[in-house]
Design a protein that fits this description.
Layout lengths: L1 H9 L19 H13 L1 H11 L4 H12 L2 H8 L4 H16 L1
Helix pairs in contact: 1-2, 2-5, 2-6, 3-4, 3-6
Length: 101
Amino acid sequence: MLIGLGEYLSGHNGTFTYASGSVYPDYVNYVFQRSFVAVIGALIVPFAYRTCRFLGFGRPAATMAAAFVLFDNALCVMSRFILLDPILFCFTAMSLLGYSG
């Protein structure tokens, strides 16, 4: 649903099927769609920090845990593309934050 929201906000009309290897037409605002997913993926970092703080970690340990999430290569790569994984990870991080707080 959030991918659909990102497409709706970018003005996508639903005619492009995102086939592998195809060129994006002019009416597909893929930069906004990729940015939308990247912002959701970036929200995982403060959630990781706050979760560690709620679990009783000190500031240096929570900062180090957030830095591990920030510099995780797989998360950086997945957040660049229009995939569902960063959204899933974000909601998982939010549920862990809610459970720990």
